[in-house]
Design goal:
The chain is built from no helices and three strands. It is mostly beta strands and 48 residues long. It starts with 7 loop residues before the first strand and ends in a 10-residue tail after the last strand.
Length: 48
């Protein structure tokens, strides 16, 4: 899976979070060489 520009990735082991500032074909890795997981977008509060 390619890195996606503007997406956040999180380590399941230590909880570190990174923001991708340049898209590429690599994979973001952290503790013990494990792939970091793509975070879901945060919901914004309702404007009602």
């Amino acid at each position: 899976m390619a890195n996606q520009l503007g997406k956040r990735y999180q380590c399941d082991v230590c909880g570190a979070t990174v923001l991708c500032t340049k898209a590429g074909d690599g994979v973001v890795k952290c503790c013990d060489g494990k792939d970091m997981t793509l975070q879901q977008p945060r919901q914004l509060p309702s404007s009602d």
